[in-house]
Amino acid sequence: MHGFVQNIGRTALNFLAAFGRITLFSITAVRWIFTPPYYWQQLLRQIIDIGYFSLPVVGLTTLFSGMVLALQSYTGFARFSAEDTVATVVVLSVTRELGPVLAGLMVAGRIGASMAAEIGTMRVTDQIDALDTLSTRPMQYLVAPRLLAGTICLPFLVLVGDVIGVFGGYLVGVYRLGFNPSIYLARTLEYLEVSDVTLGLVKAAVFGFLIALMGCYHGYHSGRGAQGVGRATTNAVVSASILILIANYIVTTMFFGG
Amino acid sequence: MAVIPKIELSGVTKSFDANHVLKGINLTVAPKESLVIIGTSGCGKSVLMKCLNGLITPNQGSIKIDGQEILGQGRAALEDLRRRFGMTFQFGALFDSLPIWENVTFRLRHQQALDKNQAREIAAQTITQLGLAESVIDQYPAELSGGMQKRVALARAIVDKPEILLFDEPTSGLDPITGGVIDRLIIDARERLGATTVTISHDMASVRRIADKVAMVHHGVIIWAGPAEEMNESGVPEVHQFVHGLAEGPLTNEKPAASPAKMAGS
Questions:
Q1: Residue B199: how many CA atoms within 13 Å on its side-chain side?
Q2: Residue B140 lies in a domain
């Protein structure tokens, strides 16, 4: 019994210590975002990597999710003759929930892992120490541009993903379920409000920040050797995915006022 | 009038939790002198070198450069200090994502308003001085051999003419001929720049070529320091064993146990 309580206490302390370290890391990194010199080339490279090269994976994910959503909601709503609401359900689900969460999870897998692996490799091959010896602050050069790029790019990716996801629903609605195209489009826009899209974009910005933060944090504190980098990569993806789901609930609650 | 040492360490200690890596290092390096630090793997040589340019902060002691204490200074002062240092790492530590010309001129480009053409020209000049072809500047580190990477790392260290050069195992992993070439380049660079150098090496042929003075670290303390030519007659069994590469003797690769007081968490 004593050992059990001790383990719980130790786990709680470790959790709090990790939370403190991540908080300090993110405060330091955010401070460097607003402190010159600014590494524009690094920022541009990250924007291309996160924003442009994630487009196919986000596009495919949201396209098929929109298509499946149209099919599933039709199946359900047909049971109480509410098939007409399929277009509305698709657009609200995609913009408010599926777009940001699915894009966030896919980008966490792609970018979180890549950031952790790249920075982790730099750590174990002394490249981060080399930056210091060359009078360049690693937090400012490596971490700050990634955090900024993640926060900027995810909303754009989600916006594109929203359009593609709604288009996927439209394809299934019109060509598989036999909806009239004009009516489907009208229903899509009828109940959609700006706040629905805004909520999704705010979530996306938060998710982008969290993905980059986890990738950078775990890479920066990577253990030695290939095993250390591998563990950092796994931790980055898992922690970013969990944080996305938690943050999703928190942001949704905030927008709904509890 | 006594010459002020370029580098002076007094009572430098460093521990990582219960692991006491440096236990009171006292060492001086004269201006333009070439000091080589030797010792078994894990004895604290790299930690000692990283203390010199502020990559690691010692727990206690004093480190003076040109008579000025460097410990306890702020980040800005530390960055000013680092501009006076050039350093190469054991495995090169070149930035994988940047071409060679950007690697070589990294600090210059971020400190001065150099445009791309100026930076490429400086990189080309520096690497050709070190025996590499000019065309190398557009390649990436992964495309170069180990010896070429060491030369590029050396180019990056000397490009802005530092006063102090630190080399962490510059010839490790190289064949003897390439190792000899790197040693020659280090000696040339030191003479051309008039720099003070501190080198970590396990390669005794290299030590004999480049060292004015040798210091041996063992269990976190300097057990012998003296002119390179006196290394063979040091009279210290550990130095004798290391210099002659003998399997039998007082040196082992096992680390000493951490002190009981520290292990108890005190």
A1: 31
A2: no
Pairing relationship of beta strands B164-168 and B85-88 according to DSSP bridges: parallel
Return all residues near B101 (Cβ < 8 A) that are at least 6 apart: B119, B120, B123, B124, B137, B138
Residue-level pLDDT at B258: 46
Contact A126 B94 (CB under 8 A): no
| Contact by Cβ (8 Å): B167, B198 | yes
Residue A157 to residues A50, A65, B188, Cα–Cα distance (Å) = 9, 15, 54
In the 8-state DSSP scheme, what is residue A85? G
Question: Do the Cβ atoms of A158 and A204 come closer than 8 Å?
Answer: yes
Q: Is B106 at the interface with chain A, CB within 8 A? A: yes
Six token digits for residue B233: 């007659």
Instruction: Provide the pLDDT for residue B253.
Output: 61
| Tens-place pLDDT, residues A150-189 | 999 999 999 999 999 999 999 999 999 999 999 999 999 9
Confidence of residue A55 (pLDDT cuts 50, 70, 90): very high
- Is B47 a member of any domain? yes
Chain A interface test: which of B95, B101, B102, B169 (most A C-beta within 10 Å): B95
Beta-carbon contacts below 8 Å between A and B:
48
Using a CB–CB cutoff of 8 Å, tell me whether A28 touches chain B: no
Domain range enclosing B215: 1-84+164-173+195-266
Q: What is the DSSP letter of A78?
A: G
Print the domain residue range for A244: 2-256
Q: What are B154-179's pLDDT values in tens digits?
A: 999 999 999 999 999 998 888 888 88
> Are B6 and B66 within 8 A, CB to CB?
yes
Q: Give the model's pLDDT for residue A129.
A: 93
DSSP class of residue A84 equals G
Exposed/middle/buried for B115, CB within 10 Å: 0-12, 13-18, 19+? exposed
Angle between helices B176-193 and B146-158 (to 10 degrees): 10
Number of domains observed in the structure of chain A: 1
SS3 content of chain A, % helix, strand, coil (to 5): 90, 0, 10
Q: Does A193 lie at the interface with B, CB-CB under 8 angstroms?
A: no
DSSP annotation of B55 reads: S
Q: Is residue B112 part of a domain?
A: no
CATH number for the domain that contains residue B235: 3.40.50.300
Number of domains comprising chain B: 1
State whether B96 and A127 contact (CB < 8 Å). yes
Whole-angstrom distance, CA of residue A58 vs CA of residue A103: 5
The pLDDT of residue B254:
57
Instruction: Give the span between the Cα atoms of A205 and B207, in whole angstroms.
Output: 55
Cβ atoms of B130 and B155 within 8 Å: the answer is yes
Q: Are A168 and A109 in contact (CB under 8 A)?
A: no
Write out the H or E segment, with its range, that includes residue B262: helix B260-263
CA atoms within 13 Å, Cβ hemisphere of B20 = 18
